[in-house]
Design goal:
This protein is of the alpha/beta class and 684 residues long. 55% of the residues lie in helices and 8% in strands.
Length: 684
């Protein structure tokens, strides 16, 4: 996962859905509606933290915890409103969801439409297709589910997803679907609601703790591991709803609670880092801090003098559109710049975000909110919902390539862009052949790239076939004794070598990103509690390849045929994205020439020579992919149709492998055809 990982993408949720136009506009409920400007001030602190993190991630590493502040606020406000209306007998689902639609949909529709328009102008065909998927997910409030499904070894850099921030809106909307129904069911048993809130909070928090170390992406994105944060706010709302007036608490205690809450928020912004298992226990810092500030009430000095400051309150009022606008602008700036933009551009992006947020608030949100007070309310809600629905449909059309980006007309760019997604690996498994004798394919993603060819062989039935077993894990070199945090490599490798020793397995083919294995800085010795990074190919780490050699030697001694596959072609010259060059908002294509085979061999020699020596001593077989992919003098970069051979800088395209890469045919087929085709026919 890149340094700017999935867990670093947190942003402020759209919890300002109940924000008031003025102190006269009611917002929360006790026995009656009371507006609290300090809540808007707390929103401002949260959104400012998120913006600072997204613009300057190294300087404000814990700013992404602003989302957790927003979750608590949202639970407090929404639960307060529902509980008040249930007690008054005025709650209806139609009115509740109509208010949510009028508040959330207009600004969201504006931002989604702007992203689609700018993306049409500035993105490659592939990136525009991906944007379409995220527009549809954002409009359907399932962005968090889509991002969870996308997460993993193959995930795109989070900073290059202009609608990444909508994950938190998805969590909130899923809360809005479930929570009002539960409260409505218990409306005649209000005393049970408190225990319901506690039960959901405890179960959700426990699930968060269990998953954060095992499935960190699931813990980050899924609502079940986030609802406890909203429930914290709901607890306060419930306690307020049970009292006719606020409890008589000494002001000194309120000030102390506010000070403690502020301290916890500062600790969250300073101490929380990407990679520390978030949410997990760390999320207690921003959530409990927010809870204390809300509990301390509007009379606490910090709330009254700082959070209720008119400037800070206004930032809170525009926090929803500000959140919606800031990330697409920063993300598109990174895309156009080809990396993290200069500080001046990032500051400019934040200024533009504030201006757009103000305009959206004053000219879109306020007028629609005023419409919501009269007979035009249903029309406003219906029109807003129709706009978001239309954008969801258009996003699906983009994803299905029925609506194309402007760049689709650039010669060769569509073919190059299509290479990015030319990947097929449905997962590990066993494909039964015509004999019980099995071939085990073992490795990381550089073994996964060969599955399409194996599937083709197993389905064509030109010759009897051996059973095929695929055991791979992206990011895990097939080397025993080493581990990567969050990958489970050590167990996977040990179990696969044990599988290789089973009697029905006659051949073991091992392939990996050997060059990547040597340069990754997060491998450590399995069982090392400190997790000290290993620097490969040094005297101190000779034991790593020695352990691999010993495992291979053991297999060969047991009568197995072991094939070690050397490095596949790699380098920026093979990367399709390097072939699409930007000209401002446009593109031009640079088709690179073939790479001299001698240069490719030399570039891989630092690790391939070591593997050849391991194979020689272990009496294993060496298979060089260059023998299939290259001629005697050059390694082509493009196939005969002018498409890149690789999908990125090191993985072969699945369609090319399926049609042309025949190096493994002799291990899968029993008595293969006399003259199998070769990849050379598909190269130029």
């Amino acid at each position: 996962m890149p340094a700017w990982s999935l867990r670093s993408c947190a942003g402020a949720a759209t919890v300002c859905i109940t924000v008031a136009d003025s102190p006269k506009d009611p917002i929360i409920s006790q026995s009656r509606h009371v507006y609290r400007p300090d809540i808007d001030g707390l929103r401002a602190i949260a959104v400012a933290a998120v913006l600072a993190f997204h613009a300057f991630p190294n300087s404000f590493p814990g700013g992404f915890t602003g989302v957790d502040i927003f979750f608590v606020i949202s639970g407090f406000l929404i639960s307060g409103i529902i509980l008040h209306e249930l007690r008054a007998g005025s709650f209806t689902f139609a009115q509740f969801y109509a208010r949510r639609i009028r508040r959330i949909f207009p600004a969201l529709a504006l931002v989604l439409a702007a992203c689609l328009a700018f993306g049409w102008w500035a993105l490659t065909p592939y990136d525009y297709d991906q944007l379409g998927a995220h527009v549809a997910a954002g409009a359907g409030f399932v962005s968090n589910i889509l991002l969870w499904r996308e997460s993993g070894y193959w995930d795109t850099d989070s900073a290059l997803k202009p609608l990444l921030h909508l994950w938190s809106l998805g969590v909130e909307e899923q809360y809005y679907l479930v929570w009002p129904v539960l409260l409505f069911v218990l409306r005649r048993h209000m005393e049970r609601i408190f225990w319901l809130i506690l039960g959901i909070a405890a179960a959700s928090f426990a699930l968060n703790i269990v998953l954060v170390g095992r499935l960190p992406e699931a813990a980050f994105y899924l609502p079940a591991t986030r609802f406890w944060e909203l429930m914290l706010g709901s607890i306060v709302a419930y306690l307020h709803s049970r009292r006719a007036k606020p409890p008589d608490v000494p002001l000194a205690w309120l000030n102390l609670a506010a000070l403690a809450g502020t301290g916890l928020l500062i600790l969250a912004f300073v101490l929380v880092r990407d990679g520390r298992g978030f949410p997990g226990w760390w999320a207690l810092l921003p959530t409990l801090g927010s809870l204390l500030l809300i509990l301390s009430g509007p009379q606490a000095w910090i709330n009254r003098r700082i959070l209720a400051n008119r400037v800070i309150v206004y930032i809170g009022l525009i926090s929803y559109p500000l959140y919606l606008w800031h990330w697409p602008i920063l993300s598109f700036a990174r895309i156009l710049n080809g990396g993290l933009p200069p500080v001046s551009i990032r500051i400019g992006a934040l200024v533009a975000s504030v201006l757009l947020a103000c305009a959206t608030f004053e000219w879109v949100e306020k007028p629609i909110r005023r419409m919501g007070r009269g007979a035009a309310a249903p029309r406003a809600a219906g029109l807003s919902a129709a706009c978001v629905g239309a954008l969801a449909v258009y996003g699906l059309l983009v994803l299905g390539n029925f609506a194309q980006a402007r760049s689709d007309s650039v010669p060769h760019l569509a073919e190059i862009s299509a290479a990015y997604s030319d990947w097929h690996f449905p997962g590990n498994g066993t494909i039964r052949g015509d004999t019980q004798q099995a071939v085990l394919f073992f490795g990381d993603s550089h073994m996964q790239q060969f599955l399409p060819r194996i599937e083709t062989l197993m389905h064509e039935k030109h010759a009897p076939r051996r059973t095929v077993i695929f055991r791979t894990r992206g990011g895990c070199a097939p080397v025993p004794g080493i581990e990567r945090t969050g990958y489970g490599c050590e167990r996977f490798v040990a179990e696969t070598f044990a599988l290789a020793r089973r009697p029905e397995v006659k051949t073991i083919i091992i392939s990996a990103s050997w060059a990547g294995f040597t340069v990754r800085t997060d491998y450590y010795k399995a069982g090392d509690e400190d997790g000290k990074p290993l620097k490969m190919l040094t005297p101190q780490t000779e034991w790593v390849l020695a352990g691999f050699e010993a495992a291979v030697t053991q297999l060969v001694a047991a009568g197995k045929e072991v094939v070690i596959v050397l490095s596949s072609p790699f380098g920026d010259q093979f990367d399709p994205r390097e072939m699409a060059r930007r000209d401002g908002l446009g593109f031009h294509v640079v088709l690179p020439p073939a790479v001299p085979r001698s240069a490719m061999t030399s570039e891989r020699a630092f690790i391939d020579d070591r593997l050849i020596e391991v194979a020689r001593r272990a009496h294993a077989i060496v298979l060089d992919p260059l023998d299939t992919l290259c001629t005697a003098s050059v390694c082509p970069v493009l196939d005969s149709a002018g498409k890149p051979l690789l999908k990125d800088n090191s993985h072969l395209r699945s369609s090319f492998v399926s049609a042309h890469f025949d190096a493994f045919d002799r291990y899968v087929l029993i008595d293969p055809p006399a003259a199998p085709h070769t990849a050379a026919a598909g190269l130029r």
